[in-house]
Amino acid sequence: MSSNMIVMGDVPGGGPARMDLAELLATRLLVQGNSGSGKSHLLRRLLEQSARMVQQAIIDPEGDFVSLAEKFGHLVIDGAECSDMALHAAGERMRMHRASVVLNLEGLDADQQMKWAAAFLGGMFEAPREYWYPVLVVVDEAQLFAPAAAGEVSDEARRASLGAMTNLMCRGRKRGLAGIIATQRLAKLAKNVAAEASNFLMGRTFLDIDMARAADLLGMERRQAEAFRDLARGTFVALGPAMCRRPTPVRIGTVETESRSAGPVLTPFEPPSAPVHDLILAPVPVSDFVARPRKAPATPQPDLLTQLAAHGEAQAAASQEEQQQEEPPEDQAEREARMNAILRDMLTDDETSFRASAVLYQDFLVRCRIAGLGRNALDLKAFNRALATARSGVSEDMSASPDWQQAEGLANALPEDLQSVFLFLARAAIGRLPCPSDAEIARVYGTVSQGRARRLVEWLEDQNIIVLRADGMGRRVITVIGPGWETLPGVPQG
């Protein structure tokens, strides 16, 4: 058996049912089945069998797959504790660090689930080319994120989510993203999303419209569609280059992990012994009307980058004493000036803007050792702050001014990846320079996407950090809230 093969179960009377993982990555998969058909069990089997072979990203609207973390080490991201900007960054970073992730959207309303899923998928889609490693992207209850018709959610959320799902299924293959979408109702799933799958696993379904669409996708005659009503729980009809060339029934095998939201189990019913009237309609004590204290939220687990940063800081602290013994003492101001000179020299390379900070950090440490500044000149957190200042392009004279010290204080409250953008804008405002263009902002952030640059600026405005306005000629002006620094008008598309 090829090393790319995983076993999904067995073909009744025909041996094991194997799936070619390499073929699946290139051709995508659609799973359909009514509630209770075993659809989530199928996805769990697929994820468990491939967990140690390929990176995985799971968009989980009901929290069914968080148990994968204990067995296979997936990072669980709680959508209720994140912003859309943070999820966009997480989607990009999980590809950079090749970490398998479960995005748990349990407890969010439909509108927010769609926006959060769109942000996470957008981050994965916009990762730099050097990080386009293969990823299985599993989206459960896909009809929620790619609806065939408008529902009660906002148009903004629907457009964002549908666009992200269309990108995943239509354009994701070249970026290493293999979409695996599962739905209860084919009729509720957008056709342009479903049509991009070349592999199908169709489970039990009862509505005529869903059976007809399933039969069409499998190339079966309409009169054969009735067979989908007779499928047992956990049995699916498979078709596609990753599994079989003809429609074949497959019985899904067992799984190692359990879902948190398993269905109810029938237990013997015992009527209450006391009078029902007294139990249910008894007067409510006044003390019960007092608001019960809410349970304190569980402390979220640190994400991958936080863990990496903590590890780096621990190593730096452990070696600090050794470094001081090995190297002669040096004036702190001179030392910082030499390190800043090294950073400025690194940024003269055009490719530096598009390298990950972790890569730049290693380059910086090597240069510092060559310059005689020791093995751990700065820890990762201090390096990121210094890098943000260097990327802003601030001069030595301005960096010593009280205004710039205030700007750095404001930047410290922002996410690390946004500090360089804010300081870049603050430098232009303090110096009364024209407002930077989207292309310049994108370069400082480390991307070529001007659309992302616009989103970063809009996010800063949403957080009441800056104010955007246009002058009479349509040029952009940015004002920093609080200090009141303001840029001169500039052309965004310049």
TrEMBL record:
Comp. bias regions, Low complexity: 311-322
Signal peptide: none
InterPro entries: ATPase_Atu1862_pred, HerA-like, HerA_central, P-loop_NTPase
The keyword Protease belongs to this UniProt entry's keyword annotation: no
Pfam families in alphabetical order: DUF87
Keyword annotations: ATP-binding, Nucleotide-binding
Single annotated GO MF: ATP binding
Helicase HerA central domain mapped to chain residues: 16-70
Disordered as annotated region, ranges: 311-335
Listed name of the protein: ATP-binding protein
Organism in which the protein naturally occurs: Acetobacter cerevisiae
